[in-house]
Amino acid sequence: MEDALQLWKEMERDASVQGNDITFNILFDAASKSGNFPLAERIYKEMESRNIPFTRFHHVSLIHFFGLKEDPDGVRAAYKEMVEAGEMVDTTVLNCVISSFFKCREVESAMRVYEHMKGIQAKADGFSSKSHHAENATDVLKRLTKISKTCPEFRPKLQELAPTAPDGRTYRTLFEHFAVKTGDFDTVAMLLEDMRTFDVVVNGGIFLVLFKAFKKHGGYVGTDWTADRLSTVLVALLEDLDDGVKGLYLDTWLMMWALRAFGQCTSKEVVLEVYEEFRSRWRLVEDKAQFMDAYLNNLLAGKDGAVHRERFATRMTTRATRK
């Protein structure tokens, strides 16, 4: 954060280049995520004093800011301000609202937003996140927003064109709460069924979250997170990999959590079988393949995380040397 501020000061002082809306959005977002809320508020006030107009990115960052502060009323106010400013509300915005409410521990509020997203029927003449690249969708939203601000009376109809259906990011956020945090398997099962209804692909991030949940909540008598259900998740992952689902691949982090989950819920023999399934499908460079071999040996020896800590320490040493 200090480096970013220094660069901004040098840019304005030495190069006589004034920061614009993009500059301030980056600074505000960085300050928020670092937990330096007073600094974020000063950056916000500096934007106001310079009469820098807010874009949809600033509004979303502000919603996220209040979520990090665990201020639910602030989340609502920031969302209301965005709507009143004539900005189009799409899936990205609603995902941010859901995530922010979870950070504020307002689960019911988060689920009301999700139910709202489910209840909005897709328009035949609208556009979906699947039929447009992200860049094109953003461009269309900018155009809709421009028209909305120029002709407010058209806003309700224009809003109907914006995609607001749940997507992969929506479900990952929901699973992080109901799967990993609370272990509510019934709700997770319901959400998986919703994904089928909305034809949302289970991506690598969601598989990873599910494996984390089995690691945390599985392996106990009476748990809903059983070995059989874990095997079902693995079969789904392997089938999607074999079918060549776009964007899905085996990275070290995903495999590590899968192996941890099977280590928690099954036996060492099963862990080895799962590892061989991964080995036959992965496309790793040599050093990462060696890392996975070392990780497996440590996991089976009951030293889960030892290789990861060693690797992290090596990276930190390398960075320090470079500096």
UniProtKB/TrEMBL annotation:
Repeat positions for PPR: 20-54, 90-124
Family matches, as InterPro entries: PPR_rpt (IPR002885), TPR-like_helical_dom_sf (IPR011990), TPR_mt (IPR057027)
Xref: PROSITE patterns: PPR (PS51375)
Record keywords: Repeat
Domain Pentatricopeptide repeat-containing protein-mitochondrial intervals: 16-117
Origin superkingdom: Eukaryota
Complex and partners: Binds to mitochondrial small subunit 15S rRNA.
Cited function: Regulates mitochondrial small subunit maturation by controlling 15S rRNA 5'-end processing. Localizes to the 5' precursor of the 15S rRNA in a position that is subsequently occupied by mS47 in the mature yeast mtSSU. Uses structure and sequence-specific RNA recognition, binding to a single-stranded region of the precursor and specifically recognizing bases -6 to -1. The exchange of Ccm1 for mS47 is coupled to the irreversible removal of precursor rRNA that is accompanied by conformational changes of the mitoribosomal proteins uS5m and mS26.
Family (UniProt): Belongs to the CCM1 family.
PANTHER family, per the entry: OS03G0856100 PROTEIN, PENTATRICOPEPTIDE REPEAT-CONTAINING PROTEIN
The protein's name in its UniProt record: Pentatricopeptide repeat-containing protein
Species lineage: Eukaryota, Fungi, Dikarya, Ascomycota, Pezizomycotina
